[in-house]
């Protein structure tokens, strides 16, 4: 694997550009979901993890140019086209269709991870381990809860990935539970 596709380097790049601990945790949670889907589909786990880690790395420094500024930097570093396509595709605009399974997975997990994290933060115990699918589905239906989460995007993401919405929600929830301590969700 080329030097630019080393996990530790991607993590360092993300941390260098992202001072916000909450956004770092979001990208780590997206990474956890991407790793789980990579294992499920028999895809390269490190590549999917790196894509999850880097999908928002430019957001705080260049919010008006996200993800284009980050993609420009990654291209300059020699990141593969599949990683670039996935990162561009997570911003749901017609000019960046999601052709690869990795791109569809990134789009499918990004907003859902945000919803799950928000649902954990309002729990009395602040632990993902007590969050059940039924509670998550209630939060999903409550448009006032985490109102900035794109619920339509979550639905479309599951459709594009070819999975039932409930199955997708349960899968990502379990992926985050498995990594809860590292994600600050325990």
Rg of Cα set: 15 Å
**What's the helix-strand series?**
HHHHHHHHHH
Number of strand elements: 0
Q: What best-fitting shape do the alpha-carbon axes yield? A: globular
Summarize the amount of helix as a percent range.
55-70%
Task: Count every helix, treating DSSP H or I runs of 4 or more residues as helices.
Answer: 10
The N- and C-terminal alpha carbons lie at a distance of 33 Å
Strand and helix map with partners:
Elements: H1 7-17, H2 21-41, H3 45-54, H4 68-77, H5 81-89, H6 101-121, H7 133-141, H8 151-161, H9 165-178, H10 180-183
Quick synopsis:
It is built from ten helices and no strands. With about 190 residues, it is mainly α. Helix 3 crosses helix 5 (about 80-90), helix 5 (about 80-90) packs across helix 6 and helix 6 (about 100-120) packs across helix 9.
Give a written overview of the molecule:
With 186 residues, the protein is an all-alpha fold. Helix content is 65%, strand content 0%. The protein is built from 10 helices and no strands. It has helices at 7-17, 21-41, 45-54, 68-77, 81-89, 101-121, 133-141, 151-161, 165-178, 180-183. It is globular and about 45 Å long. The model has no long low-confidence stretch (mean pLDDT 96).
Question: Which structural traits does this protein have?
Answer:
186 residues; mainly alpha
